[in-house]
Fold this sequence. Notes:
The complex is a heterodimer. Chain A is mostly helical. Chain A has helices spanning 2-29, 45-54, 61-73, 90-125, 130-144, 147-161, 173-203, 206-213, 218-230, 232-246, 250-255, 262-270, 274-302. Chain A has a domain at 98-302: MetI-like (MetI-like fold, Orthogonal Bundle), CATH 1.10.3720. Chain A contains 13 helices and no strands. In chain A, helix 10 runs antiparallel to helix 13 (274-302). The longest helix of chain A is centred in the middle third of the chain and has 36 residues, at 90-125. Chain B is an alpha/beta fold. The termini of chain B are far apart.
Amino acid sequence: MGWYILKRLIAGILSMIVLITVAFFMMHAMPGDPFSVDDNKKVDPAVLDRLRDKYGLTKPIGEQYLDYWGLLLRGDLGISLKPEKQDQTVNSIIAETFPLSAQIGAYAVILSLIVGIPLGILSALRRGKATDLSIMAFATIGISVPTFVIAILLMWLFSSRLGMQISHWEYDFQHYILPVVCLSLGPIAYIARQTRSSMLEALEQDYIRTARAKGVQEWKVIVKHALKNALTPVITYLGPLVAGLLTGSFIIENTFSVPGIGKYFVESVTGRDYSMIMGIVVFFGAFVVVCNLLSDILLAIIDPRVKLDR
Amino acid sequence: MRLLDVKNLRTIFHIGVGNVDAVRGISFHVDKGEFLGIVGESGSGKSVTMLSVMGLLPEYASREADQILFDGTELTALTPRQMRGVQGKEIGMVFQDPMTSLNPLYTVGQQIEEPLRIHLGLKKAEARQRALELLDRVEIPDPKTRLKQYPHELSGGMRQRVMIAIAIACEPKMIIADEPTTALDVTIQAQILELLDHLKKNSGSSVVMITHDLGVIASMCTRIIVMYGGLICEEGSAREIFYRPKHPYTWGLLNSVPQIELHKHKKLIPIPGTPPDMISPPAGCPFAPRCRHCMQICRMMPPPETVLPDGHRVFCHLMHPNAPKVEREVNA
């Protein structure tokens, strides 16, 4: 187990190196730089050149790349290049905004699991009946309707029709509920479908008949014998799901004015905020690597046939 | 003494294309302490018969019977909850494929302990102790280590021994073994059969062995039921079935069993044709289309039961006093 984790961490570091390199050069290959965006058209070009000088953007690209690694290895993600951020460090921006995104994401993960799995089980047990058909209809909608449509519909319903004050962010229940629900609709749908199909498969297995032949109570046959086997694909999905939800969603955070990390990703790309882009790439990348590792370990704990050491 | 008495059992599978009449009104019994063999080819209804008794049919199947009397209890009258008190406690079951019949996510110990805890109400430590003894009884070496292992860490023969340990855990009155050796290597087959025979002799419980291989049960069964097309063809003591078979289908089965010790140049005689389509089963004898001695009446009427003096039952029109006398053709 220890060896396996070490091996996976080394593999993770290798993929991070590739990720950082590709992201760095692609970012610089984009036309323009942080100071050539529209807002700065009225600024004296000489001033802009001095700014470029200050942040080391005039150096050859190879040198900039090595400089970045120098910073990174000291755990420093650099300084935001946007003047309105007033030379805030990327580290501090992430530290300020990530906890809220992660909190909302974590609630969404929990909600997806506690709603998605039971829906999937119910659907499998009532296969072909009205319950099954309505759950699957809901799941199809949940998967195919884009988040922004759901977000705007919910916004309209709760804010304009039900009069909830959610146009600005507050740290209370009624502000959390909509972003959490919005974020979890897709995963709920996916988990329900996945649980249903793997439950149906598990219930067909010979060991279910063995359990029944032992006189095991029906609910135990379903939960202990079928569900545990059926959850394997859901656990595999858990890694990317946690990584995706905890790192925030640009659309959700924008719609519900959540001051999370999600919107910085998009803002930094459109604004060519080099250090912010790289910072978020590094942070999200590491997060995905760790989440996948954790879900693989969880899988090995549940399924003894999964050998981690290979 | 009869342990199980089944009267007019009918089992129907409701599938998309129509209804499959898997078992079409059969009556039989299992005596206390006997080793009964049920023989037939795939689709003859032999497994479904015992699954029907055990109440283990899938949702899309329906079972009807005038009587399924097990040790004084009418099983058809039991609720699913009461039936669970019979499953695993009064009747133990061993299935065909030990590779897939054990839950891959639980240890051997956990799976053996489960019926002990459900039916006998044993505490964890007691159940563990019993499981250890059971592994020993099914002759698994080093039971302490095996108890903590998962099914995938065991060989096929070992897993089948574990299945047997589960089946006998609560000292059932009847053990149903559904082709317990079909998925195993030939050398292991003999060991498993010997084990079943040994356990039966020690415990006094009845064993019902379902198989398509007459050779498998020849040495152990006291009585044999031959099934074809959801009906019983012939039933009698093992001696009667092997030495004085009356039904052309039984003849066919016997002629297709390879015998090593006899003449080298003897040929196996296969039964021509294929089993009947059970969605629209033939009106008469199901074996009629493949029977060498088929008469007109065979295709029109199901054969009546003929009981010979020694309790040997035959379902064949040839048993009628006016029917032509035909002899079993023996391998030449």
